[in-house]
Amino acid sequence: MLRGEAMAPDRGVRLVERLACVVVFGGLYGAAMGLYRASNSLPQWEVQLVFSAIKAPLLILGAFAVSLPTFFVLSTLLGLRRDFSRAAHALVTAQAAVAVTLASLAPLTVLLYVSSQDYRTALLFNGAAFAVASVAGQFVLRRNLRPLIARDRRHRLLMRWWAIAYVFVAVQLAWLLRPFIGSAALEVQFLRPEAWDNAYVVVARLVWKALLGW
After folding, report:
1. Collapsed DSSP state (helix, strand, coil) of residue 107
2. What is the pLDDT along the chain (214 residues), one digit of tens a residue?
3. Residue 147, preceding peptide bond in cis (omega within 30° of 0)
4. N or C, where is the chain less crowded by C-beta within 10 Å?
5. Measured CA distances, 180 to 51, 191, 193 (Å)
6. Which spans are transmembrane here (predicted)?
7. How far apart are CA 73 and CA 66, in angstroms?
8. End-to-end Cα separation, the chain, in angstroms
9. How far apart, in whole angstroms, are the C-alpha atoms of residue 55 and residue 177?
10. What is the Cα–Cα distance from 59 to 174, expressed in whole angstroms?
């Protein structure tokens, strides 16, 4: 399913299959993320598991949906609008690849939780898992866009701009949707009170304080 044929007559069916793939496999990894509280015998772990199972596919699909208009505008500006439909289907296939890759890492996530109760380690591991899945998604995207790139090299530039826009949106959206794991020091919530803060401003402040000490 991840190989995709953009010119297939049942394109609509394939699109639904890939979106369902994101929901199912993304939800599976989200549930694994939410097991951190269970592995530490913390209360309300069932609630955190459900929240995380909802938010993982929401993150993937949300980042895709927010970035897609930018992709459309860039396609138009580069004179590639005629290929937008095929390219968009390739993007959806890439999101499915991200979800499947994450799901394949779910057993390792659970094993980590059983082996270590350190919250920062859990954060770093899950961040690395999303990074690996994103790289896998880019490889799948490149493979599906190869015919378009061979026909017009501007598609390669468009793919690079997509990657930048997608990562930028995904980081901010991940900040908004946190917590995904559930710190032992905080109560279980679907969103943090400061969810609408700017992730990049917060990171910049942390770096500033770390460098200057205030």
Report:
1. helix
2. 444 444 455 777 888 999 999 999 999 999 999 999 998 888 899 999 999 999 999 999 999 999 999 999 999 999 999 999 999 999 999 999 999 999 999 999 999 999 998 998 999 999 999 999 999 999 999 999 999 999 999 999 999 999 999 999 999 999 999 999 988 888 899 988 876 777 777 767 766 766 666 5
3. no
4. C
5. 8, 9, 14
6. 20-38, 58-80, 92-115, 121-141, 161-181
7. 12
8. 52
9. 7
10. 6
Contacts of 115 (CB under 8 A, 6+ apart): none
d(CA 38, CA 53): 14
Which value, in Å, is the radius of gyration of the alpha carbons in the chain?
19
Residue 141, C-beta contacts closer than 8 angstroms, at least 6 positions apart: 90, 91, 93, 94, 97, 159, 162
How does DSSP classify residue 117?
Answer: -
Helix or strand run (H / E) with residue 114: helix 84-115
159, two tokens: 């793919």
Name the token pair of 125.
């591991």
